[in-house]
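Note to self: the last two entries modelled the partners one at a time, which told us nothing about the interface. This time every component goes in together.
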Amino acid sequence: MSVFYLAAALFLLGTILLGLVRVLRGPGSGDRMLAAQLFGTTGVTILLLLSLALEESALVDVALVFALLAVVAAVAFVRQHGLPEPPDTPTHRQHPESTESRESNDDR
Amino acid sequence: MNGLLVLFDLVLLAGIVGVAWRCLASTDLFRAVVLFITFGLLLALAWVRLEAPDIALAEAAIGAGITGALLLVTLERLRSIMAERRSGRPHTPPPDPTGPHALLRALHDPPPERRTFIPALSFALVVGGLLVTALWHQPHSTGLEPVVDAHMDISGVDHPITAVLLNFRAYDTFLELAIVLIALLGAWSLGRHDLIPARPAPGPILPGTLRLLVPVAIVTGVYVLWAGSHAPGGAFQAGAILGAAGILLVLARPRQLPMAPGVPLRLGLTAGVALFLLVGLYGLVAGHGFLGYADAWAYPLILLIEVAATLSIALALVALFVAGRPAGDDA
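The predicted structure of the combined assembly is written out below.
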């Protein structure tokens, strides 16, 4: 069974290397950041597979920390770049009253 | 099985070298930051393959979480500084994220000239050759593993790495804690903290995520600290996880950072070094040598030092992320 786990980990590592194309070519910042976030998810899976294949339970802790903290970079990114607003969808700018009700919901 | 492992290692190695190369050669700083985050992930996998899960844990916490956020915020600060210099007037909102690729390139040096190629290559060959010859004739030694294993019963803990870091070679760990503190003092000496550049993130996703994640991160940090006595984990890893939780809280309200109380903050930042030093001096007076413990007291003392060190490291990482002395603090 551990051969299967290792083969799966190797396959997932290959998908990370393929995904690097998106990081290198972009075009947008969001594309690059999302690719890195997906690498985080793949990395968690690789760590779990390796912990099964190599029978090292400590790797589960590493996977847990990875899963928890990969989001920190994403939160920082959203804070720096804001959320995308597609031009053709109705945004809160056209509905000021709905925005206010949503913000008051947030306050509670 | 072994063939697959070798193949995995080779692919991982190729990925690490390739990502490091593209990261250093990138003229787009944002792309370099994303590549650096990826580099941290691959490096953590490499530490796992080198059978060093303790370092993999630290790399996962610092490389994947904290450095990425730190570099992204720094990049945004750099952008606003450059924009301010160009226009000569103060700059309030961050520039449009899709537009200023030209600005990013201006931050970067122009690409190297062709005539630097041969000197650079010969320099790399000479240094590489020296390194290979120096590393080729290694004396055959079994390493420190048998020595550490023989003395595990007097170390007070069950995990050899923790025994080395906090008992046998406590001096190194003490100086590492001091370095973290000195780094923070260096950052504070450069001035007060600026506002962290931030855009509003409307909607319930960000606050909801933080409400779920921060408590889980705190529990995980305490767990990793506790696990350090018998499994991979310990003060540095736990401090990094708790520090990341603190950074999430800072990112939740970057415009309205609560005023850090001066004296408790400074006490917390120095707690690790101070307690370590006190215990070390007590060992000197009691005749166990500097940073030596009585055998019976080893476990409680190690636990006490690790708790204080975790607190100091977490606070120092958050303070380094915020950068600069707390505003309105003239002590």
